[in-house]
Design brief:
single chain, alpha/beta, Rossmann fold, five-stranded parallel beta sheet, 9 helices, 10% strand
Length: 166
Amino acid sequence: MRIFLDINVILDVPLQRPGSASSQKVLELCTEPGNSGFIAWHSLATLNYLLSKAIDHASANAFLLDLIDQVDVGPASTLLARRALTLGFRDTEDAMQAVVAESLAADVIVTAMSLTSLAPPSPSKLQRNSFPPCLRRDEFIAIAESLQKPCSRQRFFGAISLSVDP
């Protein structure tokens, strides 16, 4: 499964924020056979800036080097930037995350935040896009752990549809 990580899932771990154990579990699931984890290119700069302020620059770099040993970094291009800026998301950074996840053909976006922040402004915009489903980290862990590993895309999406209340 192709797992795209929202920046807040990553920040939880070194900053030991509430939910950091769940975020660490998500990172571990990215490294299991049959799974691949991804982050956006622009997330590296944001992570470095925030971690350098909270901890120190050397520790921030060491964390990021370890992170990119475990997950792959998504592409950046003028085309992706233009797409993100014209989608009409309330938050440009979230639009950039969604566009990178889409370009990677990610199966899921895992976030630590409210799902409304990663949603396009209207259902009609969502129907015209091929963004992967977005799950909070605990929802993702519960579904992924309930399935045999490695988790196939078909089995994962079947589990998502079973877990959503009508």
